[in-house]
Design brief:
Length: 366
């Protein structure tokens, strides 16, 4: 029988096994080269500081946060955190609140990324396990012991502010990520990261701006029906109840609008449908707002500079930005549009577009 899959699908299907072999080969190379304390000490001496302001993408899940973070991944002026930034406790939704007098190991444990051990064992993947698209897995060569050592060497004896600890953690992370392609490019301006729902917790959002008064919070707004269709496919347990799900969507919208009023230009709202249908124009406008140079990589989702398949609730064939499939409206529950709560949400969505990032639409001039 003829295999009718596209070439991209063959690569996606076969990459997982290749990554597992690459991980095993890396461990063999480490043994052969004697990678240990001496080489780690040399790496500590050659550390690249990561102290730039942060551009944090945050809103309710299934709104395009992963997409935007992957569009920023290969920009030469950005240190791009590869997965959701999960340094909050008790969950990633909460911004860190560290004790400045704690021991370095305690500080590190309070920030340590719970996803890293999985990536070390199995390679990197952002797709959900229940995604309809075959999982795509990438090499992830990381030295966890080196990261802890780097962090301990960079923490001041008497830190004056939490930002110093966050800078130390990010410096240790990117320098311990041994195959990170963007580490040595000069002229870095930002650290970019995505964490859902930080915008929805007032104390967490305040903590972000306390630590990064020079940073930006980018929040994405998605049409409520399109969002709900994606969310319920992604996690029926959390989003299956349409009333409860719509309440979460509304809370995210309300929180982002309040942050926009209180922090002005430091909060940037983007419409998801604009991002996927007019990617170039929206990314150019975003660059203009935050002072980032335009780069062609901003139109292609990547992980560590390699094209990556979208983490979509719908089936995806090949790489690139998902457009029409991602903005489709649901075909189920046809009576829902007549319900007052959904009508209200749609009207609020349309009204909120006025406060979102404006861009030059193709063919309409400047």
């Amino acid at each position: 029988m003829t295999d009718a899959r596209r070439p991209d699908e063959h690569r996606i299907d076969s990459r997982s096994g290749a990554v597992r072999r690459a991980v095993r080969a890396w461990h063999r190379v480490r043994q052969a080269l004697g990678w240990g304390p001496t080489r780690r000490a040399r790496r500590v001496e050659d550390v690249v500081p990561v102290t730039q302001p942060m551009v944090l993408v945050s809103q309710i899940q299934r709104s395009g946060g992963t997409l935007l973070s992957q569009l920023l991944d290969d920009h030469p002026e950005c240190f791009a955190y590869p997965h959701e930034l999960a340094w909050g406790r008790p969950s990633k939704y909460f911004w860190p609140a560290l004790g400045l007098t704690s021991e370095p190991n305690e500080m590190f444990d309070a920030l340590d990324d719970p996803f890293t051990p999985t990536f070390l064992r199995s390679g990197y993947s952002k797709q959900s396990w229940h995604s309809p698209t075959r999982r795509e897995v990438f090499p992830f060569v990381f030295d966890a012991e080196l990261q802890r050592r780097l962090f301990a060497s960079m923490v001041p004896n008497t830190p004056r502010a939490q930002r110093e600890l966050l800078d130390a953690f990010l410096t240790s992370y990117f320098n311990a990520w041994l195959d990170y392609q963007n580490l040595y490019r000069p002229g870095k301006r930002f650290v970019t990261a995505f964490t859902p729902r930080v915008n929805m917790h007032a104390e967490s959002a305040a903590g972000f701006f306390r630590d990064y008064p020079d940073g930006y919070l980018v929040s994405i707004l998605r049409h409520p029906e399109s969002w709900y269709e994606s969310a319920r496919r992604h996690d029926p347990g959390e989003y299956g109840d349409s009333s409860a799900a719509l309440e979460l969507w509304s809370r995210s919208l309300d929180a982002s609008q309040l942050l926009r009023k209180s922090h002005g230009d430091r909060v940037i709202l983007i419409v998801f449908e604009d991002l996927v249908l007019h990617t170039v124009s929206v990314m150019r406008a975003l660059c203009g707002r935050i002072g980032l140079m335009w780069h062609s990589s901003l139109t292609v989702p990547t992980f560590n500079s390699m094209p990556i398949v979208a983490d979509s609730s719908f089936e995806v064939r090949g790489h690139g930005v998902v457009s029409e499939a991602a903005v489709r409206l649901p075909t189920t529950e046809p009576s829902r549009r007549n319900e007052a709560r959904w009508q209200d949400a749609i009207e609020r969505y349309e009204a909120s577009r006025r406060d979102c990032l404006q861009f030059c639409r193709p063919g309409l001039g400047s």
